[in-house]
User: Which sequence fits this backbone?
């Protein structure tokens, strides 16, 4: 089955800096890669996703890049703000009725 | 739409008692997932249903856990008998054909 590894497990940045979280996956058939943000005590919420037919997707301060050859994808947050502090999860799946395989999560701390 | 609804939000019970968690998926979503989240093990998929049929229950930890989906708008996860190591946050999620998966608010279970 699919295996998703996520790094780093924790990331501390100063407000205004950029943050990058990286994930690798094992199943070359995977073609859907969402990122979830989970604030303390809350549910995971989808913030951005990418499909294998594109290499990059942006939404304001958030961007995701995908390298299918190397089987890795990354989340980039620019101009970080304290409210970006949360745990971020990457995931991968083979489209259709398959399940998401989640990484272990990255705790991002943005200091004012 | 109110999103995925879970009840109860918090449950405290004693070891050996039966626990039933409930979920109402988003209307029109045809896939439903039960996850368990702990600090040690992260986000684990327990079971998922497609069109009310259980597809993969390989994540169900033991025979003490069972899940049902009698119709498209309701699912239950039952633990009988409960044990302290079952203490966790249990999330229900549902998904539409576009693959975006939405999580419910979770049930925080504490087994004393």
Assistant:
């Amino acid at each position: 089955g699919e295996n998703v590894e996520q790094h780093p497990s924790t990331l501390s940045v100063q407000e205004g800096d950029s943050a990058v979280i990286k994930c690798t996956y094992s199943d070359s058939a995977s073609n859907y890669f969402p990122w979830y943000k989970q604030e303390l005590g809350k549910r995971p919420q989808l913030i951005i996703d990418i499909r294998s037919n594109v290499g990059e997707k942006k939404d304001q301060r958030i961007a995701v890049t995908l390298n299918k050859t190397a089987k890795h994808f990354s989340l980039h947050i620019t101009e970080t703000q304290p409210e970006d502090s949360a745990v971020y999860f990457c995931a991968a799946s083979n489209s259709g009725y398959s399940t998401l395989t989640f990484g272990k999560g990255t705790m991002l701390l943005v200091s004012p | 739409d109110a999103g995925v609804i879970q009840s109860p939000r918090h449950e405290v019970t004693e070891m050996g008692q039966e626990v039933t968690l409930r979920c109402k998926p988003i209307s029109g979503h045809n896939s439903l997932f039960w996850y368990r989240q702990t600090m040690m093990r992260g986000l684990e998929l327990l079971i998922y249903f497609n069109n009310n049929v259980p597809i993969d229950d390989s994540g169900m930890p033991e025979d003490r856990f069972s899940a049902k989906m009698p119709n498209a708008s309701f699912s239950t996860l039952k633990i009988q008998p409960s044990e302290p190591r079952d203490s966790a946050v249990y999330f229900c999620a549902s998904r539409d054909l576009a693959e975006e998966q939405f999580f419910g608010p979770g049930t925080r279970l504490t087994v004393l």
